[in-house]
C-alpha cells in the first residue's frame, strides 16, 4: 500500500508528522478514511478519535481531537485540531477530572455563547470517555 504525508497540528505544537498508510478522521458528516491518492477535500471535524496506521500491519495510533479542520490535498493530509491528546497519555482519573471541570464550567456559564461553549466541552469530554471505554 502507498503512503502519504500526514500532519496533526494543535495551537501548542506539531503532534505528528510523517508518512502513513491510512488515517480515519471523525468528520462532522461522518467518519472518513484517507488513503494515498485520496481526492482533495476539506472538512470540519467533530470531537472524536483519529486512527492513524503508519504501516499496513502495524498497531494503529489513536489520538483524541476536540474538533478542527482536515485538509486533504495532493501533498497529503493536514489536520488543524483545537486540541489533540494521544489516547495512551490519558488516565481515567485525569479524564474524570476534566469532565467534572467541564460540567462545573457549564453550570456557572453566563450568556448564550459561553453556555453553548461550555456545554460543547462537556460533550467532548464525554465523547472521549466513550472512546476509551
UniProtKB/TrEMBL annotation:
SUPFAM superfamilies: Epsilon subunit of F1F0-ATP synthase N-terminal domain. Residues 4-84 form the ATP synthase F1 complex delta/epsilon subunit N-terminal domain. It is a peripheral membrane protein. It is found in: Cell membrane; Endomembrane system. Keywords: ATP synthesis, Cell membrane, CF(1), Hydrogen ion transport, Ion transport, Membrane, Transport. HAMAP family: ATP_synth_epsil_bac. Produces ATP from ADP in the presence of a proton gradient across the membrane. F-type ATPases have 2 components, CF(1) - the catalytic core - and CF(0) - the membrane proton channel. CF(1) has five subunits: alpha(3), beta(3), gamma(1), delta(1), epsilon(1). CF(0) has three main subunits: a, b and c. This is ATP synthase epsilon chain. The lineage of its organism: Bacteria, Pseudomonadati, Pseudomonadota, Alphaproteobacteria, Hyphomicrobiales. The gene is atpC.
Amino acid at each position: 500500500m502507498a503512503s502519504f504525508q500526514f500532519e496533526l497540528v494543535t495551537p501548542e505544537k506539531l503532534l505528528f508528522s510523517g508518512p502513513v498508510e491510512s488515517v480515519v478522521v471523525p468528520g462532522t458528516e461522518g467518519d472518513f478514511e484517507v488513503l494515498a491518492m485520496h481526492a482533495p477535500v476539506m472538512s470540519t471535524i467533530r470531537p472524536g478519535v483519529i486512527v492513524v496506521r503508519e504501516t499496513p500491519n502495524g498497531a494503529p495510533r489513536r489520538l483524541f481531537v476536540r474538533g478542527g479542520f482536515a485538509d486533504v490535498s495532493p501533498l497529503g493530509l493536514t489536520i488543524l485540531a483545537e486540541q489533540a491528546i494521544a489516547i495512551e497519555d490519558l488516565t481515567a482519573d485525569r479524564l474524570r477530572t476534566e469532565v467534572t471541570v467541564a460540567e462545573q464550567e457549564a453550570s456557572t456559564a453566563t450568556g448564550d455563547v459561553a453556555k453553548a461553549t461550555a456545554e460543547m466541552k462537556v460533550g467532548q469530554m464525554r465523547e472521549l470517555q466513550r472512546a476509551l471505554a
